Amino acid sequence: MAASLIRTTTRAALRAGASATPKGAGVAGLTFARGKATLPDLSYDYGALEPHISGKIMELHHKNHHQTYVNSYNTAVEQLQEAVAKEDITAQINLKPLINFHGGGHVNHTLFWENLAPKNQGGGEPPSGALAKAIENSFGSLTEFQNKMNTALAGIQGSGWAWLVKDKQTGSISLKTYANQDPVIGQFQPLLGIDAWEHAYYLQYQNRKAEYFKAIWEVINWKAVEKRFS
Amino acid sequence: MANTFSLPPLPYAYDALEPIISKQIMEIHHQKHHQTYITNLNAALAAQSVALTSNNIPQVINLQQKIKFNGGGHINHSLFWKNLAPNGSPETNIDHAAPSLKTAIEAQYGSVQKFTEAFGAVLLSLQGSGWGWLVSNGPGGKLEIVSTKDQDPVTDKVPVFGVDMWEHAYYLQYLNNKASYVEGIWKVLNWQTAEDRYLNGVEGSAVLKL
Asked: Which domain of life is it from (chain A) (predicted)?
């Protein structure tokens, strides 16, 4: 995942290094030289998830919303680097919500695009193997799991995401919801995420979000979820 | 059976805020979104009534967030409809409609222009769903720009006016360009209602009785 999120290019590294250098310590410049986050390509066309998610939604969601998270994250990280260089702890702490929100938006959407797939690339094909077994053990059946995830999605009060997660300590899987762009970090590992922000469905489904939650299972890429699980 | 809440009618036609807010948005926002908050609030209050009768304390506690969210949704939207007015109507002219509030805004923010910029910045920095509000700490009191998340209502100050920053409030028309929505909202802001709330609180002529 990390590799697809942060793509270091020579140019970006030089730019980051160069911008940090005049501030003094050459070591600091090296330390903070890092690649900028970039918008990952989708592995399918914008229209490929139709009729479940419209091409227009996919295009706006990817090219505009996700791109804004990427840009704003890069800006926040630049400011963080400046604050670190100045040893300004207050400024660093101030930046935390921005880094969490925009960094989370970048991480969440990157995972989301990967756990979706068009029908002709396996979208909607049920999971198999160890993941299928884990879902059965934890939720009774795939259908039961989907019902519970849809209930969790419908219950989000405001913007947010629902995730199937794996507990890193116990290995067990469970359902969790996260507010706004809070990413799945810490004790839990993200397996499957569904975006419940209104921008993810509104142009097609308006206030009928239950229809979106029902439809999205037709384009879930369970192969990607299996990969994360194993 | 306790009283139940019902959808308040809009004080103008669905298309009255065009071209700033489209008829389609107003229809869905009022008839579907606001109605859903009311339906869920009534259900939560009915469940609470049962839980209170049976002394089911965990259930009473469990219901409080639902009441806050859906009750807040009902309160916020009720305030919002009333603090909007048809594009070009006399109510949207701050000079004529809100002399006292305008003076207070100028005294605190320097100018109306600076105030709208500061208000816009708060709206655009919301992370997720929520509202921006101009609040005062009592009739004719000190002003403050605040934001509330999701459907949290303003409960400890006077909400002079609010702007809905949920995506459903603008997405069908403005898509991800929420800055344009924020810029346009001033053209349909009901300064008359704002003035009235500023001077009299929400117990005045802009009554919100739940």
From this structure: Eukaryota
Domain that holds residue B48: 21-210
Interface residue A183 vs chain B (CB under 8 A): no
Q: What is the pTM of this model?
A: 0.88
Q: Do A97 and B127 touch (CB under 8 A)?
A: yes
**pLDDT given at position A25:** 34
In a domain, B15, yes or no: no
Query: CA Rg, chain A, in Å?
Result: 19
Q: Does residue B60 lie within any of the structural domains?
A: yes
Q: Are A167 and A174 in contact (CB under 8 A)?
A: yes
Give the C-alpha separation, B183 to A86, whole Å. 36
Subunit contact B28:A207, Cβ cutoff 8 A: yes
Least confident of A10-24, A203-217, B107-121, B186-200: A10-24
Domains defined along chain A, listed by start:
2-117 (1.10.287.990), 121-229 (3.55.40.20)
Owner of token pair 């880094």: A99
Q: Report ipTM for this prediction.
A: 0.91
| A180/B28 CB distance under 8 A | no
Burial of A16 (0-12, 13-18, 19+ CB in 10 A): buried
A62 labelled binding-site residue:
no
Residue A17's pLDDT is what?
A: 38
Predicted local distance difference test score (pLDDT) of residue B209:
57
CATH number at residue B112: 3.55.40.20
Q: Within a domain: residue B28?
A: yes
Does A26 score more than 90 pLDDT? Answer: no
Between positions 62 and 81 of A, the ones with CB within 8 A of B are: 64-65, 68
Which tokens belong to B13? 């036609």
